Every structure is written in C-alpha cells, then in structure tokens.
Amino acid sequence: MGDQSSPRNDSAIIALVRTEELDGIIFSMRQMEQNFNAKFGYPWIFFNDKPFTEEFKRRTRLETRASCLYEQIPSEHWDIPSSVDPGKLTEHMANMKSRGVKHASDLSYHQMCRWYSGFFYKHRALSHLRYYWRVEPWIKLFCPIEYDVFQYLSDNDKVYGFTINIYDDPLTLPSLWPETLAFITENPHHLGQNNAWKWLTDNTHRPDVNLRANGFSTCHFWSNFEIADLNFWRGDAYDSYFQHLDRSNGFFYERWGDAPVHSIGVGLFENISRIHWFRDIGYQHTVYANCPDSDRCNGCEPNKFAPVAFWLNQEDCRVNWLDQVCQDSAMEHGYLCPKRNRNH
C-alpha cells in the first residue's frame, strides 16, 4: 500500500457539521489526527448551512497542524426546492413520524441527505479536489492507519471505499427503487458491466425488507464513513440519476438518505471491482462497528458488527456483499470467498 507521508494536493477530509456539534467533531478530529492525519497532514474542510462561529474555528484549528477551511453551503443547494408542496410535506412528515421513521420531522435532516446526495460535490471548495474522506461527529477509530488511503484509491483504480455495510429502514424509501428502475429504463447505457445488482436486490436474507422497499434489499454502505472519488459523483451517470430522483421530491415526501442513494449509484453505475471494503480500518459510529482481527487495533472486539446489542446483527449486510463479489472468483475479492459464511 505504500508508506507515503507527503499529502496529495487533490484530497481532503470533509465534514458537514453544525456549530453546536463542536464537541463531537473535536472528538472525531482527535481520532483522525491520532490514527491517520498527523502523519499525512490533509486539510480539513468544514461545511455548514450557517456561518461558523469564531469559537468553532479557533477550537478546531487547535486540533490539527493541517489547514482548516470553513465553508457555507449556498442557499440554492440547501433550501427546500419550490417544487415541494408545503402542505404535502407537512402531511408526509407527520405520517412518517406516526410510523416511527427516524428523523421524519427533522427538516434539516432531509436537507442534509439531499445535499450529500447531489450537491456537496458541486461546492466550489471541492472543485479542485479528486478524493475526500467524510467524517461525522463522535466517530471512533481503533487502528493506526499507516498508509495513504487516497493514494490507495488512486493506485488501485478504486472509486469508493466503505467500512460498514448495513440494511436501511424500508419505511424511509418506499419509492426509491421504483424511481431507480424508471431511471434505468430510460438510461440503460449508464449501467455498469459488472455491477452490484444482486446485492441491491437480494430477497433471500431479509425478504420482508425487500418486499416493503419494493424490490430493494436496502443494503447500503454507511456513508458516515466514506472515502471516495469526487469524479464519480460529478459524472453524467450519477449526476443525472440524482437529478431524476430530485424531481420526484422523495428527499422530502419520504426520508431518503444519502447513503442508499450513493450506494445505489455506485452499485449500479460502476464495476464492483472499483468498490473497496476497508476491512483493515477499525471504525465505529453509534452502535455499529468494523473491527479488524489485528494486533494493531485497540478498543474494539474483533469482528463484532454490533458491539452494543446482539440483536442488531440482523442489520449486517456483509454476507450479501460477499455473495455479490464472490460470484466472480477471479476478482480481487476472491480471497474473501472461502470465509464468507463466517462472522468476520
């Protein structure tokens, strides 16, 4: 993988964060600096729909020797589009809330998901960049990362890297897959030759979820950890897909997350050989984790997906992913395939 300590000039660590999340993002910065960025010195770019306070800037700058940029999101990228009917929005949000959909009535959450789905890669602060690592408040890293993850993507022709592979709540996205199929019908030329169709449509492991999501397994890469190539999102296949989705207003009338939208996009329009599971990066966000079985790692239980509660293991989509990548034993993932029935 290479031990390259000079940072690339086309990569950065990014975070969408509110001023009131200062303590959480400082916690994450310390995790990132200690385990990765103190060695490589990649810039931090913070985004907010409102101006950052001077205290936020001062305290975050104290956490890194790398440069920090503070960017406000343009209103045209954040505001509710005029095509959204206010009455219908209120009705749909109340209906989702009554059915227990998380964040259903949190309008800013809907806006965040839409921004990360189709606007973050259009921000001028990222216009000169190729790669990014997305970070959220209160994340944990358990293993020193001794190599440059951005260089790894570049050297190995990868466009997307993940750690956690998980089911979604089908109540948040009943029309997402039907809208996706409508887009594919109109644009079959965008489909990747060796894509992740099986993973996206699996109905054997959680048939109840697939049924309620109208043919979508809901398996997705958890995008609170995301190391990826901005050029994929900028490309015609993904961006036109987002435009199609956005016209349906599903980010507001339903509660589509950016994680399933990103995952469907990269899963359908790319070759799965260009998607990388960073199995060696120990990572936790809320109750889910990726913990390698390695002496390098401390503070997590090896191979535990849900260290907090055993019943949450049903949300793990790793078996589905291995079923997908192991269809082609010649792939780089082939070394994983003999172990696919083990909890690893």
From TrEMBL:
Gene3D superfamilies registered for this protein in UniProt: Spore Coat Polysaccharide Biosynthesis Protein SpsA, Chain A
Keyword terms: Glycosyltransferase, Transferase
MF annotations from Gene Ontology: alpha-1,2-mannosyltransferase activity
Keyword Repeat: no
Active site location: 226 (nucleophile)
Gene Ontology annotations of biological process type: cell wall mannoprotein biosynthetic process; protein N-linked glycosylation; protein O-linked glycosylation
GO cellular component: Golgi apparatus; membrane
InterPro entries in the cross-refs: Glyco_trans_15, Nucleotide-diphossugar_trans
Family: Belongs to the glycosyltransferase 15 family.
Protein name per UniProt: Mannosyltransferase
